[in-house]
Amino acid sequence: MAGGSPSMAELLEFRVPAGRDRTLLVWGLEPEPGLEHSLFLAFSKFGPLYSVRARRNAAVAGPGYYAIIKFYSAGDASRAQRACNGQRLFQKSPLKVCVCTKQKGFQQQVLALNSNKCQELANHYLGFNGWSSRIITLQNVSGFDGENEELGETLQKRSVKYLCAVEVTLPNHGIRTRGVALGEAHVENGEDPLEFLTATRRVQKIAAGRALSNAFQKILLVVLENGKVAVEYNSTQEELTDSLTEEELKGLVQVNELSLEQFDFEEEEVLSDLSFDDELSSLEMPPN
Prior knowledge:
This protein is α+β, with helices and mostly antiparallel strands. The protein contains seven helices and ten strands. It has helices at residues 35-43, 74-84, 115-126, 193-216, 240-243, 246-254, 276-281; strands at residues 10-13, 23-29, 49-56, 65-71, 96-99, 132-140, 158-170, 175-187, 219-223, 229-233. The strands form three sheets. It has a four-stranded antiparallel beta sheet with strand order 3-4-2-5, with helices on one face. It has a three-stranded antiparallel beta sheet with strand order 1-9-10, with no helix packed on it. The two termini are 31 Å apart.
């Protein structure tokens, strides 16, 4: 549902925001220390931000900086554009702010938000006490998928895999969802106890984070005109894990003939993988 219409609600998913109506282009920025922080403070007043990225203008565009700001909500982005365009905000000269008008191949792949971003979004719309999560099970499944390790390679290079099941509860809305995900890493020197322990802890954290993100994928936030938030269960994301008892879920994780492919969920967003230059190349800069 598009933002900007006074009589409509907007659906928000726990996914990386995609689409031009959630993305603002800001130009006419003057160089200053902490520019991205200043932009964040100015624009986050209108709603939670996914990202703020400032870059120096290309030589042909003259001195100064431009920025791309992504909102989760199209309605928030629209309000911010109307309020901030032509305003000085934190600098001497007025800013130019527009909603991106053309994006060729923009964000073709819809990615799940990483667990930290999911928690930020949940805290904003549901409140810090409006949701909770707990780990149901976290189990070592290394070697369960039929790995053929030769004896000579077993200790030299080991693969560590953990499967995690997490439950997210929204008590005020009577909603409970579960997420299951896999974490994996290779240990170059399996004979080094410290390296193996460090890798194990990292994999456990990855699995728990991905499982939490997966659980949030089944939650839809319905942001109403008056600012109130309703929550819906996304039935299209319903999985077997939501209907099992905890004992059945743990049993599913423990079966010897475990098929790990069933837990290979859609890719989760990783901040380091996001390319600003790729985004920029797909945006059409408005004329000066």
